[in-house]
UniProtKB/TrEMBL annotation:
Signal sequence, renumbered to the chain: 1-22
Keyword Cytoplasm: no
The entry's keywords: Signal
Lineage top rank: taxon: Bacteria
Name of the featured protein: Uncharacterized protein
Database matches in InterPro entries: TPR-like_helical_dom_sf, TPR_rpt
Length: 202
C-alpha cells in the first residue's frame, strides 16, 4: 500500500509542470500565437459547449473562428455572446468583421447602426458602414459617413479616399477634385488617389 502511494507520488512529481497546470484557455492563446487556429478553435468550441452561458468563451471562440477563416461560425459565436451581454459592443464589432468577410453588407449595415446607437462616434462602425454603403452603391450614405469621420480625423487618408470616390460616383467633380488635390500632396503614389484625381479633372 505504501509502495503504491509512493509510486503515485513519484509519477506526479515527474510529470511536466505544464501538464499539472493545464489550462485550456491559456492553451488556446498559445495555439493562436503559433497560428494553429484549427486546434485552438476545437479546444474553445468544446469549452463553449460545456459553458453556454459564459460570455468570454463565446466571444473568444468567435475571435478564433474569425482568425481561422470560418466566418459563419465566428458570426454565430459572436451572436451568442451578444445574447449573453446585450449591451456589450465588442461582440457586435466581431460580428461586423465576420459578416463583412462573408460579404453580407446589409447585415453589416444593421449591426453598425446598432453599435452607433450606443456609441455614435465609434470609428470602426462608421468606417465599415461607409465602406458597405459604397460597395452597395449607396454613394450618398457612404459620403455622409465618410464625411463624419473626416470631420473628426481630417488627415485620415483612407477615409478621404473613400470620400473622394463617393463624390465622384455622384458626379460631384468639384468636391472630388478638392479632396484628391489634398491627397495628391501627401500620398501622390497611391493608385486610388492618382486615378481619382484624373477622373475628377477630366
Amino acid at each position: 500500500m505504501i509502495m503504491k502511494k509512493f509510486s503515485l507520488l513519484l509519477l506526479i512529481l515527474t510529470l511536466p509542470i505544464s501538464s499539472l497546470l493545464a489550462d485550456p484557455i491559456t492553451d488556446s492563446y498559445q495555439l493562436e500565437a503559433k497560428r494553429d487556429y484549427a486546434k485552438a478553435l476545437d479546444l474553445l468550441e468544446n469549452l463553449s459547449k460545456e459553458n453556454p452561458g459564459d460570455y468570454f468563451l463565446q466571444l473568444r471562440t468567435g475571435w478564433v473562428a474569425l482568425l481561422k477563416g470560418d466566418y459563419t461560425k465566428s458570426s454565430s459565436y459572436y451572436q451568442k455572446a451578444t445574447l449573453i451581454e446585450p449591451n456589450a459592443i465588442e461582440p457586435r464589432l466581431g460580428s461586423i468583421r465576420a459578416n463583412l468577410a462573408l460579404g453580407q453588407h446589409k447585415q453589416v449595415e444593421v449591426i453598425c447602426k446598432t453599435v452607433l446607437k450606443q456609441d455614435s462616434k465609434n470609428y470602426f462602425a462608421r468606417s465599415t458602414l461607409a465602406y458597405s454603403y459604397y460597395v452597395m452603391a449607396n454613394f450618398k450614405e457612404a459620403e455622409k459617413y465618410y464625411e463624419s469621420i473626416v470631420d473628426d480625423y481630417p488627415a485620415d487618408t483612407e477615409m478621404l479616399i473613400g470620400l473622394g470616390w463617393s463624390h465622384l460616383k455622384q458626379g460631384k467633380k468639384a468636391k472630388a477634385k478638392e479632396v484628391f488635390a489634398f491627397l495628391t500632396k501627401i500620398i501622390p503614389n497611391e493608385e486610388r488617389v492618382s486615378s481619382g484625381a484624373y477622373y475628377a479633372n477630366n
